[in-house]
Amino acid sequence: MDKEGVVGAIKKIILPELEAIKGNQAKMDVRLDAIEKRISDMNGHLLDQSRRIDETNARLDETNKKVDDLGMKLTDRIDGLRAELTTKIDKVNMDLTTRIDKMNTELTSRIDKVNTGLTTRIDKVNTELTSRIDGTNTRIDQLTFQVGKVAQEMERIKREQVVTADIFTRLRSLEDKIYSP
Fold first, then answer.
1. I need a labelling partner for 90 at 20 to 30 A (CA). Which of 23, 75, 113, 120 fits?
2. What pLDDT score was predicted for residue 73?
3. What's the pLDDT at 1?
4. pLDDT value of residue 181
5. Which residue stretches of the chain have pLDDT < 70?
6. How many CA atoms lie within 13 A of 117 on its CB side?
């Protein structure tokens, strides 16, 4: 076998396979180009999405900063209002406590004056009524004594009447005896 026969045999066997490999490689190149194009398109799409996400994150950061600033302002306003209201409430509480204490002192004084006045009047009325009762008791005692005297006098008069009646009866009886024949 000579060199040409070997080359011919190689061409017969290997060349068709090399041609098939070249065809497959060309198909693979076409598919690889399509895949590379798809990857490139996806990378572009991912870059666009990444840019949008970054923009959205920036807007969210800005919104969060505004919310935090607003929260701080509102907290400061609430704290200020709380301090102001606490001061006002404390002042009103002190004013009311002072007024209540003053009113309590005033009413206690007035009650004491009324109590003293009523006690004086009650003592005066008590003294007057006691005096009047004592006077009435004295008059009752005098009347009782006088009634006793009158009763004694009536008893005496009754006895005298009985004696006088007896005397008259005896006198009539004597007259009857004397004037009767």
1. 75
2. 93
3. 59
4. 64
5. 1, 181
6. 6
Its pTM stands at: 0.41
Q: Within its chain, how far is the Cα of 21 from the centroid? A: 95
d(CA 12, CA 113): 145
Give me the pLDDT at residue 83, please.
94
Q: Is the dihedral of CA 68, 71, 76, 79 positive or negative?
A: negative
CA distance 81 to 78: 5
Query: Using the 8-state DSSP alphabet, how is residue 181 labeled?
Result: -
Distances (CA, A) of 18 to 13, 29, 63, 169: 9, 16, 65, 201
- Tell me how far CA of residue 41 lies from CA of 28, 32, 34, 38, 140, in angstroms: 19, 14, 10, 5, 138
Q: What is the pLDDT of residue 142?
A: 94
